[in-house]
Structure formats: C-alpha cells, structure tokens
Amino acid sequence: MAPIKTGLLGLGTVGGGAVTVLSRNASEIARRAGREIVISHAAAKEYDADAIHGLERIDRITDDGFAVVNDPEVEIIIELIGGYSPAKELVLRAIENKKHVVTANKALIATHGNEIFAAAQENGVIVAFEAAVAGGIPIIKAIREGLVANRIQWAAGIINGTGNFILTEMRDKNRDFADVLREAQELGYAEADPTFDVEGIDAAHKLTIMGSIAFGIPLQLEKTYTEGIGKIEQQDVVYADELGYRIKHLGITRHTGEGIELRVHPTLIPARRLIANVDGVMNAVLVQGDAVGPTLYYGAGAGSLPTASAVVADVIDVVRALTTDPENRVPHLAFQPDAMSDVPVLDMEDVHTAYYLRMQVVDQPGVLAKVTAILAKLGISIKALIQKEPLAGANHVPVIFLTQRVIERNMNTAIEQIEALDSINGGVRRIRVESLD
Q: Which one from 141, 206, 223, 248 is the annotated catalytic residue?
C-alpha cells in the first residue's frame, strides 16, 4: 500500500522529536500501522536543522502552515505549534479539508475543543490529542479505552513537571520556592515567565480534558478551580512531613452526588501513597474505577521524545482507523456525542475536603480555645494539632491544624473569622488534604 502522507506544523522541541521518532522507528511503525507513515510537508517559522534527526526525509518545508493544511496529498495534520492562534485556524481548516488531526496542544483542546470536535464529527475526521495530557503517559487512551468498562469515580494527577520539581527540591534540600524556581528556569524546566506552570494554568488545561473524558461532560476550562504553588513556604513542607504528608500540586476531578469536581491546587497527600513519592519533573495520574479499583500511570510528562512518543502513537491510531466508518470510531471525549452528560461542575465552595491550616497566634492562654470554638461552631473537626515553641523574644507561635473533611464554604467562613481575631498575626495558610483512598 502507498505510504500515508502527513503534514507537520512546527519543528520545535516536540515537532523535532516527532520527526526523529518517525524516522528512527520507521520500519517498526510501518509494521504496527500496516502502512509506511511519512512527513511529506512541514511548516515552521524557524528551526535548528542540525538538531533534528531525519529532517532530510521531509519532502518540503515551508513557513506557511496553511500551505500544509491545504496540500491535497496530505491526509493527516500534526499540529505542534502550540497556543491558540493560528493553531485553531489551522486545525479547523484541516478539518474542513477532511484531514485528520493529531495535536499536543492542551490549551487549544481545553479552550476550543468542543468547537473542534463538533467540526470533526460533522466532517467525519478524527482529532487525536494523547500528547496534550501528561506527555508520554498514555492517560487519555487508558481512560477512554482501557477503562471503558468502568464508571470512573475520580482521578488525581501530578500533571506539571515544573511544579513537581520545585516542591521536590523544597522538601529534599530545604530550599525556598524562589530559589528553586530560578534553578528550574536555568535548567529549562520553567519558562522565563513561569506563570502557566507555577500558577496551575497548564495543569488546569490538562485536568479539564481528563475530567471531560472521565465523566462525559463538555470541556469547561472556565469552571476549573485553579490555585498555584507560589505561596507554599519551606515551613509548610516541614510541617507536612511531621504530620506524615507530602505536598504535591494536584489536579483532581471527582464525580459526586451533586456534580463534578474540577480543581487544581497544592495538596497534602499521605506520604505512604505511591503518588506522593513521584519526584522531580516526573508526572503521575491515579484513576479510580468502580470495577478495576485504583490504577496508577507514571512517566515523563514533557520533553521532546516522550511527548513525540504520544504524538506518533496517535498518528498510528489514525492510520489504523482510516477505513473505519466514522460512526464506529472511538469518540473524541470517550462518550458518544449525543450521550454527553449535563451533570454540573461544582463551584469550589461546594467541594468537600480536609485541610491543613497554619497560623501565627499570640503566645497567651485562651487563644487556641477561641480558634477551636470557631471551628467547632462550623462543624469542623480537628484531626491533628502541632504547636511550636516560640522563638526567643517572640510573642507569636506557629500553630498547625489538620482537619477532617468539611465543605469548603464552611472553611472559608472559619478562616475569615479566625483572621479577624486580635490574637492572630497575619493570615491563615490553607492547603487542602486528600487521602486518595
């Protein structure tokens, strides 16, 4: 059979990796796909020709992405330029031209995926996006296909390697956030503007996609609660360890009786959990199904070749499905388009979880009684308490509470009332706690 011709948009880190993988593993890929897969047309504004293995196998390289998506010989478009525009316009044009699309663009899918999938459904083409979540970990395929017999109950993941590297260094080497962030930028783990990573925006894109696939709801990025790690202090890492926990920047989605949770925030996890021991830039996702129980997926969440592995796997899947009736292909968001659920996404105030609370209190009798009275009045039970000795000459002492699960609305009220006490110095540091069992 004739080779399948693909068009590649972007020759950066992941695009170069895709060229390398398709070239280096060409014969193995052909054996698995049933046909040879070649890149016949590519577009990039700039690229390092010396750094990309297999670049000479591409027939044409241009700086015009629309020339690639309009090429009548190209059957599959691989979009690896990232961002919203012109990625969205190029993808929609490719779909309009009846071309299948493979993308690693989590921001595009999380923000415009509903529109893109509707267009793909109308034109009978596939949009594959395994590489958009957790890099080389096949988590989309695991939830959408491997766990298809299950009702997914919840999923929780370390889905941003930069944040995980920072928190790991803070714990293992007793370093401050700002110091580790500078090193992460020097090592290339974090961008010059690290906002997307440390503020949780990157993880929110990925969690939005995971939640839709797990529960069959439309993509709703605007309803994903997002909180970064910039306020985590070294003392929080130490106190968490004393309590038997580790702090991770988690994306959590859960189906409750009232709706769907979609939330990204720093989280205390029991140190004995496997996911609590995922360190450095690695990613991991824990998925709980009603039939299979808990399953853990671990690996590289970013990087040239790990992400390219997921991209090329998607290309192979598209090639395998080329002769399949569009109505019988695996649905983009795991559920048939006419069977999507309207279960609401919960507001963060309606979420139930446990909490770590740290505060500086005046070192005098009766202060803790006032705090515990506020918590008790709002139905908040205390699970553990740490009170430290005051430093020489200091009249404030750090006090740490670990609470039982409670609705966030009540905790917000409690924190507001505690911070209003004259005996509290500064604000209350709140980190949510999940047992993941």
A: 206
